[in-house]
């Protein structure tokens, strides 16, 4: 029997799974509990790893007295490096998995940067469109996919779901660059929307822009879904099924390093494409040619991803299925036809009644809500500073590369935080960073006139300073998310039973983040209609951000207590 184990793990973005070094695999049945406190290198390490003490010094003295040579620092480093090199049997699956993850994140970075350029700089569009598309398009699509995915697991063999989900993405992105974008003037109903807009208040310009530029809106939604579906759902669900706890502890950090290298390279590729646009003549659609370069890279990367997955399924998975754990799981599991499946409504009811899952959902929704409140305001100022798609795309390329570099550093720092301070402290850092930097960004926007002499002394303008501060805010938040928030979230799934993992991850990871971003978008829509613009809404958004961060921190503290209790009971 084929069962569905932990089909969704994050995080993603992005890049989302860069620090999933601490994700324990989900290939153990309830009858074979392999998760214990020892499986988590970052949970209460003081209980399992003792700090150097007098006893350590005594041991060294005793060894010297017996003539046993002390290991040199060079030998220690060589031993550590050798421990990071997989065994030949491990390399068969870890190398293609690492390549898959590298190109998934490479694609996600290109798509994420391109979707903003397309939609924000589209005709009669702007950053004000983002709240509306997240609420009325992204959120329904995410919830609909979560429902569809449950059905796909019933209709298709588990290994074929990957192909069924990835193929539509690659097909659309290819068609967009070669057909939809070149024919945009014919396909987009500008005349009809202009006629409708003339009969409606000015506040409807943003939602009408979604329909006006409908192919750009589709690109935006599918680019967002690539991170949730392909990275979080498909890749990490597959990786956790075929990877053991010991392998995850040793090699998942290397996956994260590769992912951030992909982030840097994708940003530089985007910047290179932006420079190529400058060499095109005036008769050439420069942005259209750039899209072909970008989507060509996405399609080529997608081919490598699918090829690696097929290689693992054909040559690695059959050898894993003969292990003792697989045999035990098969022997202890009931026939699939006798298994009672929960409906989607029953799944959400089940999750709503679980305080543990509810706290975990609050963490995910709070992040989506808070980052959306700040990010949309920042992108509004970004368009004012870079109205041309060329310069906008080049800036986003530098932004992605900087995010990759900072995240690499944060991964090293994050590992120390987990080991020294544990899950609770690590879970508190992301909301603290987001709240502090977000309120700083809003403060600069609110008091820009009072700060004008200071910005002039710095040789810049309030607008450019706000753009740079917003970029720093986004980079810091994404780096802390990938290095701390995502592994905290994934670790929290470990003590859950099989149904909670499967249904919980489908509801939280796929629908939770869009729900948070959709909630932030709905709030921004109300403020735009009520106050006239995002800029006029800044003081209210600052207050809402402070409230969201407060409830986020409170839920993180509560979940930390529940997580420690659950891990203690599992270890007994």
UniProtKB/TrEMBL annotation:
GO molecular function terms listed in the Swiss-Prot or TrEMBL record: ATP binding; ATP:ADP antiporter activity
Residue ranges crossing the lipid bilayer per the database entry: 94-111, 132-149, 161-180, 217-239, 251-269, 289-309, 360-378, 398-418, 425-444, 450-472, 526-553
Annotated coiled-coil segments of the chain: none
Keyword Nucleotide-binding annotated: yes
Topology term for the membrane: Multi-pass membrane protein
Entries under NCBIfam families matching the protein: AAA
Organism: Fistulifera solaris
Protein name: ADP,ATP carrier protein
InterPro entries reported in the protein's UniProt record: ADP_ATP_car_bac_type, MFS_trans_sf
A Pfam cross-reference name: TLC
Family assignment from sequence similarity: Belongs to the ADP/ATP translocase tlc family.
Signal sequence, renumbered to the chain: 1-28
GO cellular component: membrane
Keywords: ATP-binding, Membrane, Nucleotide-binding, Signal, Transmembrane, Transmembrane helix, Transport
